[in-house]
Write a structure and sequence with these properties.
By secondary structure, the chain is α+β, with helices and mostly antiparallel strands. It has helices at about 35-40, 75-80, 105-110, 115-125, 180-185, 190-210, 220, 235-245, 255-270; strands at about 20-25, 30, 40-50, 50-55, 60-70, 75, 90, 95-100, 170-175, 225-230, 250-255, 275-280, 280-285, 290-295, 305-310, 320, 330, 335-340, 345-360, 365-375. It folds into two domains: about 5-125, Jelly Rolls; about 170-320 and about 360-375, no CATH class. The protein has nine helices and 20 strands. Strand 17 (about 330) and strand 18 form a beta hairpin. The longest helix is centred in the middle third of the chain and has 23 residues, at about 190-210. About 20% of the residues are buried.
Length: about 375
Amino acid sequence: MPLKALGLGKRRSRNQVAVGDERQPGLLLQIIAAELDCFRRQIEAGRTRRRYEMAPGFFGDEIVTGALIEGHFFSYRVERDGVDRWPYTARAATDCIVLTLSRAGFEEIVNRSPSLHQHLARFRAQSAQPRNKWGEAAVAIAAAPGHEEDLPGTFVDYETTPKEYPLSVTQTALRINTRVSDLYNNPFDQEREQIRLTIEAVKERQEYELVNNPEFGLLRAVHPRRRIPTRSGPPTPGDLDELIRRRHPKMLLAHPRAIAAFGRECTKWHVVPQRVDVEGVGLTSWRGVPIFPCNKIPISPRQTTSIIVLRTASSDRGVVGLRQTNIPDEYEPGLSVRFMGIDEKAIASYLITSYYSVAVLVPDALGVLEDVEVGR
């Protein structure tokens, strides 16, 4: 539920939301200890660089069970299940701003909104049903059933309204003076070369959109549970081990500066990343997964970027590219070059169009390592 939908304001009363509470590094955001009971009954989310989930280890020491970054939230399971004891301690690893909502304030907002009350009722009803770790309906299976026992009935959960992927389009109009193509056509075909260079620019923009488009780009299509923060900032071998811990990863995409930062961390760890040959090009790899350089992945002003992991091919239920074929005046699959005519100024025009998109067939086919520092 978006926080803006809760009707949050700037004024703050005893049962209302605290907006913009700043927490310093090392401050416990919520503690298991009984004396801090007020934190147990609050929902916390917010804009943060990094928070750690701490829990007691097997030998009594403190271990890190997870990390939270900007956009992540916690405690909704406690509110849903009514558990009085937190399973972990949340500690601010860096400066962060959190938004808190007390249980009393939450109940007050729910009582004022019938639609929100109905939404929560549906959520609680679905949560009471058996679910697997991905939130889908659990498949009931009997292992070694007894003599003449009834087998459980089951079904496989599915999306009743699956996501649709309309093809995106990138277009430009190339204008060439006919005098140039007539007089300067040797030793290079000026018309063909200008079309080729324009197509390369269109493909560069297409690559940027496939990574950054707000509707279907890879960085936007990652499931929230597949967003992993780095433990310390720079991309360490341990961070990449956590990132590729999924079924059959085929490639990693990283900014060249992120690849260089990973190489520096490998030197600190005294490990040497392997080199693999991909279509005649030597690439850095980790655990046999090639790391492809991609300068379309942005670097923030804070010198942080992301590393993307993909499993490709529809046969593996991975990430697949979409394009339209057999279009009029097709120059290559998904791309057309259409002659638009010559105007009264003897300028020949060509319409260059590319249709494309990308689809993630299942959520675990795509993941991202966030907050990767490249400035160290």
